[in-house]
Amino acid sequence: MKTHKIGIFLALFLLVGFSSCKEQNTASKLLINEVLIDNESNFQDDYGIHSGWVEIFNRAYSSADLAGCYLRVSSQPGDTLSYFIPKGDVLTLLKPRQHALFWADGAPRRGTFHTNFVFSKTRDNWIGLYDSGKKLLDEVVVPAGMLQADQSYARVGDGTATWEVKGGSEDKYVTPSTNNQTIESNPKMENFEQHDPVGIGMAISAMSVVFTGLILLYLCFKFVGKLAVKLRKRNAMKAQNVTDKQEAKERKLGEAPGEVIAAISMALHEAQGADHDVEETILTISRVKRSYSPWSSKIYTLRETPHKK
After folding, report:
1. 2, 8, 31, 73: which is deepest, by most CB within 10 A?
2. Highest mean predicted confidence (pLDDT) among 7-21, 112-126, 167-181
3. Domain 13-184, what fold?
């Protein structure tokens, strides 16, 4: 009885531990990825209006739902505003490594992604993301005076810990609803193109791989075939009680011409394919006797053809 209680206790302990780990992993999926405070001529919303926005990033390789989460902002102590992300919108389900953009325009009636708050252009802006249990997932503070118009405060790369100001130069541009850091070139490809501009090396490498694979397949099939023939001969010698290999070779044990193998294969195919065609060959013929009735006779239903005069 004591051992039984200890087992139940350990099972409950492991269940609680796994549940807590799962909640922690789910909470760490969603991050605040980029924030734009003063939007004069940057990205427009679906109404054609320039408003500040905050970008949420799902850094996990599984989907995460923003429905039921909270976005909170504060420009000074005591004036924290909270926006509840409504449920029922399929667009709140973020696919792996994807982004969601929320407009800080103070008009939540415009849609799910329009919040009930606006950013302050003269004070510090604290932004926090909470889950449905009001547990803080991520937060960021945008200091006053750091950003000019149409500049954003963003992570250097999606989900990284380092932040930077974007929009001040051509190589650091604002990236709403897309990756913060995009790779516009492939160094390996450029290096390969520099050393092999015509592509001869690529052609030789590809052909070498193909022919090497074919040679390996040939050797593999040849080895398997020889092994199968050897096993067949050994089984034939065992079935005929022959121990001398020379005698087995003279009697051609385990050897069969191709015609015999083809005939056996066709017979097996016919036997397997004809199983479902077996039908019962018993025929039963019974005479049906019907009683004559004038009510059902066709002669009473026929009309007489009129005589011509």
Report:
1. 73
2. 112-126
3. Immunoglobulin-like (2.60.40)
Neighbours of 184 (CB within 10 A): 5
pTM over 0.70: no
Rounded to an integer, the average pLDDT of 88-111 is 94
Report the half-sphere exposure of 62 (CA within 13 A, side-chain side).
6
Closest CA to 115 of 128, 134, 102: 102
Nearest by Cα to 162 from 174, 135, 136, 180? 180
Q: What average pLDDT does range 283-307 have in this prediction?
A: 64
| CB-CB contact of 77 with 49 (8 Å) | no
Q: Give the whole-angstrom CA distance, residue 36 versus residue 53.
A: 5
**Which tokens hold the place of 199?**
């592509």
Pairing relationship of beta strands 30-36 and 52-58 according to DSSP bridges: antiparallel
Find tokens 């989907």 and name the residue: 63
How is the chain split into domains, by residue range?
A: 13-184, 200-266
133 backbone dihedrals φ, ψ, rounded to 5°: -90, 15
